Amino acid sequence: MELRQLRYFVAIVDHGSLSRAARVLHIVQPALTQQLQQLEEELGATLLHRSAQGMQATDAGKIFYEHALAILKQVSDARSAVAQSTDKPSGTVALGIPQSASGALAFPLLKAVRAAYPDIVFQLTEELTGNLTEQLRSGRLNLAILFDDGQLGGFASKPLVEEEMMYITRTDSQFACKRKSITLAQALQATLILPSIQHGVRPRIEQVVREQGKHIENVIDITSIAILKSALLADMGATILPVSPMLAEIERGEMRACPISDVQLSRTVTLCASKNIPLTNAAMAVEKLVLELTRDLSTSGKWLGTSILVAQ
């Protein structure tokens, strides 16, 4: 198996066509077809099939595609690590961020990296927490923002902030809290619109509710943060979440966040990297910038509901 075969295979999947992939790769289509056949023979599996939508990966091809991306990224990182200097880091850095944290951190981080390190190609990916964990483990991501649920032992982790979860509604909602704070029992009386279990925040909420001897009666599960916001604005219910995903709506006065007074409901936001794959100089530069930026956002009050952790 050769690296060029991996590149060829990935190009076919990405472009959905042998002819388009051949043009992008600057090779003739028969040579591309031959390399694909050799790869499939070596693996003993059919990786692609032709459909009305073009060339598509088989189930085996989908699995191999993920591994091929990870291998090609690690090769690229290795080349960058040898070539780059510590004074002027360059190369590609892929960082993953959960949907529920991107509102506070994604855009400031994008601006900060572009300003501080113009030679770094910064790839910022927003995903469900479970997807980020898998991509970081496979090497497709250099870094990821994750929530410490006690299952991060396989990663090199640096705590960033502790982020409080609050009871959030539309400002004039029928479910809005009547005072400056609300108890957990009162919050659970409302119809709750919560992220699905794949989100890092949901297991934490369920854990605290169980510890208090209670359970969630009325819940609407929504995977997408954007759809969850729309449901809140339509007054279909309330939510229990960190403020960061709703920050813009709260600042515009469209939503209201109310502290939960009788329980400690928060999550630990953590920066993670693989223990097995070394960080390039560029990735280490971005890692340092993430630590500095989260400290600034928290202490300035721009990242509401957070407190810096001493471990930084």
Automatic annotation (TrEMBL):
SUPFAM superfamilies: Periplasmic binding protein-like II, Winged helix' DNA-binding domain
Annotated InterPro entries: LysR_HTH_N, LysR_subst-bd, WH-like_DNA-bd_sf, WH_DNA-bd_sf
UniProt keyword Transcription regulation, yes or no: yes
Domain HTH lysR-type, chain residue ranges per copy: 1-58
Protein's UniProt keywords contain RNA-binding: no
GO MF entries: DNA binding; DNA-binding transcription factor activity
GO biological process, one term: regulation of DNA-templated transcription initiation
Pfam families assigned: HTH_1, LysR_substrate
Family to which this protein belongs: Belongs to the LysR transcriptional regulatory family.
Protein name per Swiss-Prot or TrEMBL: LysR family transcriptional regulator
